[in-house]
Amino acid sequence: NYIHQLSGGTKRRLHAALALIGPPFVAILDEPTSGVDPNARQQMQEILINVVKAKLTTILTSHPMDECARVCNRLGIMFNGQLACLGTIQHLKSIFSQVDTNMTMIQNVQSFLLSQNQLNVETREIAYSTGSFQIKQSTPADLFELLEQHKQNLNIETYTISQTTLEQIFLSIGKKLDIDLQ
Predict the structure, then answer these.
(1) Residue 173 burial by CB count (10 A; 0-12/13-18/19+): exposed, middle or buried?
(2) If you classify domain 97-163 with CATH, what class do you get?
(3) pLDDT-derived band of residue 100, with 50, 70 and 90 as boundaries?
(4) Which of 38, 74, 123, 163, CA to CA, is 20 to 30 A from 154?
(5) pTM for the full model?
């Protein structure tokens, strides 16, 4: 009867603790930090990080992407009940990295990037003299080197290379799969 008197957040922590006793071959935790206060959430994440370090196979479902990035060493994204992608966070970010540029001849840069077939470039946004491109097949270092080599002849004033956030990856996969289903 004591368990029924606990708060929802405390029950979640207790369920997670019970799932990890043993230790089991595989622990499946369904949103273990949902409904807990920020302090308890941080403590739970520290426990989960230690579980991962101990090489205990754990399947964690979670909506907060920051939690996934902090706790997980591999990430799977589900869409319509099916696994849409699986990989390390760094691998997924490298697949979906992007570059933002500010230049006077944006069309020349767009043509140049699109001509680089090995990069697998997708134009995200073009507005006046700025553009945003998603580069799917390059590391930030390789992209930096390429842009530096061609910066003057393409008249690039400034550019920013950033890794895509997990939220952007999730939305991009959802958008692509949603279009494919139509």
Answers:
(1) middle
(2) alpha beta
(3) low
(4) 163
(5) 0.62
